[in-house]
Design brief:
Blueprint: H1 16-37, H2 43-46, E1 48-55, H3 61-70, E2 77-81, E3 83-91, H4 100-111, E4 118-126, H5 129-156
Antiparallel strand pairs: 1-3, 1-4, 2-3
Length: 181
């Protein structure tokens, strides 16, 4: 079964200028968005409070987000982990917010419901140290990948116009002559 006839010819190169224009426009939009809005770093990079809650029944994530927004935790990240009644709430640090236990009690009071009571299992402050380590390791990884690409492209070019070989062809000249048999 053929999807395309064997003798079909598509002129893909006809659309190259339009494709390049679209790619450049998307690149400029992305750089503009980064310049104006910046990056939204997660809790691992900025630090903040992690609150773990355990509900008696399955918790409604949307309802919890609404309650936390009404209580003043607008940027709270609410997720389930493990069972559907185990909830983790991640909060960005506020000005003067250093007491994780007080923040945990405030979150518990905001999401508490008589139909589905919750218990506070953990409330900790997470520092931004993990993010610094991840960022530095990421930079090192990018440097190694770039070095690997450069090394591979230099070793695989053998001066011919044929397709590149499957293995790099790095040759090392030796001053020892080959022996004849």
């Amino acid at each position: 079964m053929n999807l395309f006839p064997y003798d079909s010819k598509f002129d893909f190169m006809r659309l190259r200028t339009m494709s390049i224009g679209i790619a450049i426009a998307l690149f400029v939009i992305a750089i503009g968005a980064l310049a104006t809005r910046g990056l939204n770093f997660a809790l691992d990079f900025t630090g903040g409070t992690v609150v773990e809650l355990k509900f008696d029944k399955e918790a409604d994530i949307g309802l919890l987000r609404d309650r936390l927004t009404k209580a003043g935790f607008a940027d709270a990240v609410v997720q389930t982990f493990g069972a559907s009644n185990d909830i983790i709430v991640r909060l960005q640090p506020e000005n003067g917010q250093v007491n994780a236990n007080k923040t945990g009690d405030s979150v518990l009071a905001a999401v508490q419901n008589s139909d589905n009571p919750a218990k506070l299992t953990r409330s900790d402050f997470v520092g931004p140290q993990v993010g610094k380590e991840l960022a530095s390791q990421g930079v090192i990884a990018v440097i190694f990948v770039a070095f690997g690409f450069c090394f591979t492209s230099r070793c695989s070019s053998n001066g011919s116009s044929r397709s590149p070989p499957s293995l790099p062809r790095c040759t090392i000249s030796s001053s020892v002559p080959a022996t004849s048999r």
